[in-house]
Specification:
- There is one protein chain.
- With 227 residues, the protein is an all-alpha fold.
- The protein has a domain of 157 residues: TerB-like.
- The protein contains 13 helices and no strands.
- Helix 3 runs antiparallel to helix 6.
- The longest helix has 24 residues.
- It starts with a helix and ends with a helix.
């Protein structure tokens, strides 16, 4: 059974009256956690599409970039997206269930936020409604506002992208404090750590970009403030 078939079955259970908690409780252990992760991105992404009032072809294409969808699975993937978009459950409920599923796994929740930012920017415009949506989801996930702004700076071209924001530190921090944060972020982003968390390969591709941004921010800071 393919990933997309399992995802479709899970969403069909929702459509047939099972609660979100019932469905997500069945997805807590590997390999079904990858199903839960995928549903999280699709369901929240579909809900987010309503924030700017439309679902564009670019947003659908963005899903294909986040997830490696085989040609034979495209019909199921489209079905999943439409089911999630039409589901009556609010995005806050989805976000709360996802936060519960990945409690204590901040890295996975950040991976999910990156996927949502990627989809939000697919049409080249960051709508205020999308910003409000993403900020509220980040809050439900328990991510501090500094981390939300750091994520936004990496994905939204006109957002402030100073290196301190990328690392989520204050310019008043000592160079040693910043070094510790940088090292911790590099460790957390390492592919081996992500594989151990059981996230899909698609999320690892996002981590590669995150690693580049993290190291670039550290380099910029050390040029201004030599260690």
């Amino acid at each position: 059974m393919s990933l997309w078939t399992r995802i479709s079955d899970a969403l069909a259970a929702l459509a047939n009256g099972e609660s979100l908690s019932q469905v997500f409780n069945t997805l807590r252990s590997a390999p079904e956690r990858s199903v839960g992760f995928t549903i999280a991105v699709i369901a929240l992404g579909a809900k987010m599409a309503k924030a700017d009032g439309q679902v564009t072809r670019d947003e659908v294409t963005a899903f294909r970039e986040v997830f490696n969808i085989a040609e034979e699975d495209e019909a199921n993937a489209a079905k999943v997206f439409n089911m999630a978009r039409l589901d009556v459950a609010g995005y806050e409920e989805y976000a709360a269930r996802i936060a519960d599923m990945f409690e204590g796994e901040k890295g996975t929740l950040c991976d999910l936020m990156e996927g949502l930012f990627h989809i939000a920017m697919a049409d080249g415009f960051y709508h205020p409604g999308e910003n409000e949506f993403l900020q509220q989801v980040a809050g439900i996930f328990g991510l501090p506002d500094t981390e939300f702004r750091a994520l936004r700076a990496r994905f939204v071209p006109n957002a402030e992208a100073d290196p301190y924001t990328v690392l989520g530190v204050s310019p008043d921090s000592t160079i040693e404090q910043i070094r510790q944060v940088w090292r911790a972020m590099v460790r957390e982003t390492h592919p081996d750590r992500m594989i151990a968390r059981g996230v899909p390969e698609e999320a690892i591709r996002m981590a590669e970009k995150r690693m580049v941004d993290i190291n670039r921010a550290w380099e910029e800071i050390t040029k201004e403030r030599p260690a």
